Amino acid sequence: MIITNQKSDNIGAIASSLCLIHCVATPLLFIAQTCSITCCSATPIWWKSIDYLFLIISFFAIYRSTKTTTSNWIKPALWFSWILLFVIILNEKIAWFNFPESLLYAPALLLIALHLYNRKYCQCKTTNCCVNEK
Predict the structure, then answer these.
(1) Would the pTM count as exceeding 0.70?
(2) Do 81 and 107 touch, CB atoms closer than 8 A?
(3) pLDDT tens-digit profile of 40-70?
(4) Nearest C-alpha neighbor of 88 from the set 60, 107, 62, 112
(5) Are the C-beta atoms of residues 123 and 64 closer than 8 Å to each other?
(6) Residue 34: HSE in the Cβ half-sphere, 13 Å Cα cutoff
């Protein structure tokens, strides 16, 4: 818990980055797999479950970051990005709507950017920081 309390933005940015790498790597791995196997339905369970692991880690990183941030707008922006990522990943598993695969990258990139912004500008203890936003 000490790591989460002190480094929630770092953990959030890293988890979002790994999620993005996972999302980019998946199609490339399955293209490589088709060269050796004729059926692509043999996706390992652990590979499918990584999405949920990233969502759980990101949830707690965002929860902690929103408790310590001094910015009023960063809190809803982080939660909106996470909810959007959650809905897109859930939709990918359940297939409610047919979205382009690249749509998943936007909330992941936004989470990375928001965590890095929050870490740099909104965790300060001086008078010249995000706490002075109106």
Answers:
(1) no
(2) yes
(3) 456 667 777 878 888 888 898 889 888 888 8
(4) 107
(5) no
(6) 6
* Distance between CA atoms of residues 64 and 83, nearest Å: 16
Encoding tokens for residue 63?
């929860």
**CA–CA separation, 120 vs 134, rounded Å?**
19
Residue length of the chain: 134
Judge whether 57 and 15 are in contact, CB under 8 Å. yes
What is the maximal distance between C-alpha atoms in the chain? 62
**Phi, psi of 58, rounded to the nearest 5 degrees:** -65, -40
Q: Please write the tens of the pLDDT for every residue from 77-100.
A: 999 999 999 999 899 888 888 888
